[in-house]
Structure formats: C-alpha cells, structure tokens
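During the second year of the project, the team shifted from modelling isolated chains to modelling whole assemblies. The rationale, set out in the original proposal, was that interfaces cannot be judged from single-chain predictions alone. As a representative example for this report, we include one of the complexes processed in the last quarter. Its constituent sequences, exactly as entered into the pipeline, are reproduced here:
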Amino acid sequence: DIQMTQSPSTLSASVGDRVTITCRASQSISMWLAWFQQKPGKAPKLLIYKASTLESGVPSRFSGSGSGTEFTLTISSLQPEDFATYYCQQYNNYSTFGQGTKVEIK
Amino acid sequence: QVQLVQSGSEVKKPGASVKVSCKASGYTFTDYLMHWVRQAPGQGLEWMGRINLNAGSIHYAQKFQGRVSMTRDTSTSTVYMELSSLRSEDTAVYYCARVYSAYASPPDYWGQGTLVIVSS
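Output from the structure prediction step:
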C-alpha cells in the first residue's frame, strides 16, 4: 500500500500569512494527488486534483505543486475561512489519505 | 444537482453489524465509482474501499478485508456499505464519495456522513 505523510501536523498562522503544507508519498504516484479541506462536522471539500489543478469555484489563493513523491499545497494569503484541516490523497493506486494538517489561528 | 444522501446515525453493540446506505441523484449513477471513507472522532480520513457502480467490481482496503461488504442497487441508485464484527474502534463517521470512473479522479462529491457508535 502507498503511504502518505503530511507535514506539519499542526500549523499556527495569522490572517494574511503564506502557508505551505507538504505531502510525501512512499512511492511515485505521478501527478495523481488531491488536496481536501475539512471543517468541523462537515464532509471534506475537494480543492485541488492532479497535483495542481484547481477545482471549480476554489479561490485562486490555493495552489498545488509537485509530482512523483513530493507535493505541496500553498495558501498565498490566509483568510479567516481557511482555518481548517487539510488532507492530501493519492489516487494512483486506489486511495490513501495523509494524516491531515490542522491550520489554526496564531 | 448532485446529491449523496446517507442513512441516519446508528448505535450498535460490539459484535453486531451495521449497514449504511448512500442514495445518489442528479447524475448518471453508473458513470461513477463510489468510495467509502471513515473518520473516527478527532482523527483523520481512512479509505475503506470502493465499488464500480457499472461493473459492480469491488476493492477493499486490506484492513477491512473479510469484515466489509459494498453493494449497489442500480434500480434505486443506492450504494450500501456493511461492516460486521463491530468493535469500539469502529465508532466513526462513515462517508460515501463519488469518483468518476473513466479516468483517474479524486472524490468530488461526498455524502453528509453517517455516525456509527459502537458501545455496549
């Protein structure tokens, strides 16, 4: 099975900050990586797929990059509604999620 | 509009089984796969498996092999996930999520989640 490792587990930031979350795969997954945002009590929301393609309706302050085994999610200027938990997911070989990164208010 | 509507919360005793349903609407049911993902309280997302809604083929995560069963009813556009031999660690919110079947895709729509509590 492919393992996904996110870092950091928790990130403290302020409104307006640039935030970067990293996701590493235990083997190459090409570009088959997605990023999700989840708020308490809600289902995850798709932000980015194929490593860098923004889902329709997602603000352009979100961006993704990477291929192979190393990927990043960047929020260029953190907004109040962005405080949430973020998950990466590989879908190269069935599916695996990272353990999540909680973005909290500094 | 696309909707995935799941069945309501369940409370089960250890050793029992639970069957969660996910009714799809607003799109062509058989063009998609349905994945099941669970989330224990305060924990991350855990992929359980998926079913091809056209062919009916299934793949379960190794952790759940032998304990989980996923089925679909194309006449009602409903997918079912049954988990047996429940233990307290199975207490979680269970989500269904659709995935386009024609090429590699992530889940784009999710159900609202079904809370399953396992307690004696």
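Chain A has a mean pLDDT of 98. The CA atoms of residues 40 and 83 of chain A lie 10 Å apart.
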